[in-house]
Amino acid sequence: MEFKSIAFTAADSKEARLAHQRLRDRYDHVPTEKADIIIALGGDGFMLQTLHAFMKRGTPIYGLNRGSVGFLMNVYNEENLLQRLSKAQPINLYPLRMTALDIHGGKHQALAVNDIYLLRETHLAAKISIRIDGIERLGEMVCDGVLVSTPAGSTAYNLSVQGPIVPLGANLLALTPISAFRPRQWRGALLPNATVVTFDILDPRTRTVSAVADFTEVRDVKQVVVREDRGITPTLLFDPEHNLEERIIREQFLP
Fold first, then answer.
1. Residues 113, 232: Cα–Cα separation, whole Å
2. SS3 (DSSP) at 18
3. How far apart are CA 91 and CA 94, in angstroms?
4. Where are the domains of the chain?
């Protein structure tokens, strides 16, 4: 791939800011609004912020890890950056769209690259019913919450609550309960990516629930609808030896 104009953006950490200055001193660059590729310096959280910031423009993003885990990032190296970019492989991501109705009559929409999850707000367990494409599949789940994950996000929060890792090309979404008390044996479901998932909060004024799309939170929801949005396609770039598909496969064999 060839890129004519590069922009650098960085997280607020000392490591990211130092790398930002060193790379800007070394390579020609333009403001982000004029770039045809964005170099993001930071960790996975900052990559999510960058994806959201440039999602609608469709500018490809190449991450260099100046954070901790760096699952969505490439190995940081100041050498041969232009050559690395020319060999980078694109991965197209398909975000989830959340439409949430709150108990006060408000309607909220947000996009998520990783996941959309519902969580109880108080000491009271949430009671949630689940409809899949309009068909009720669970009439009442008593739980801390529930989560819908994209394949790219399946190794994040979804994995920590014992959800399945989903390969990128599987065209599936992971539906995973969070600390379900009833039904105790239900471990979630894998759903076709075209599925529309509707969560109805039972007793939403007493057993209050919040909904989160990546880092956008809506409080006191009574209904949340989740579906994949293929009208917006953020693109991540990876070095051939560190592509995201390989990382997701490798993650499944870690001890």
1. 11
2. helix
3. 10
4. 6-93+233-251, 96-228
Report d(CA 99, CA 44) in Å as an integer: 25
- Cis? peptide before 234, omega within 30° of 0: no
DSSP 8-class letter at 79: T
Class for the domain spanning 96-228: mainly beta
Query: What pLDDT is stored for residue 17 in this prediction?
Result: 97
pLDDT per position as a tens digit, 231-253? 999 999 999 877 777 878 887 78
| Alpha-carbon gap, residue 100 to 110, rounded angstroms | 9
Say if 6-93+233-251 and 96-228 have the same CATH topology.
no
Average pLDDT of the residues in 186-193: 96
Going by pLDDT thresholds of 50, 70 and 90, the confidence category of residue 90 is very high
Alpha helices in 89-225 (DSSP H): 157-160
Q: For residues 203 and 194, give the distance between their C-alpha atoms in angstroms, rounded to a whole number.
A: 29
The CATH number of 6-93+233-251 is 3.40.50.10330
Looking at 25, 44, 115, 200, which residue is catalytic?
Answer: 44
* pLDDT for 98 beyond 80: yes
Structure tokens at 164: 């399945």
CA distances to 66, 75, 186 from 124, in Å: 39, 43, 20
Is 229 one of the annotated active-site residues of the chain? Answer: no
Q: How far apart are CA 80 and CA 49, in angstroms?
A: 26
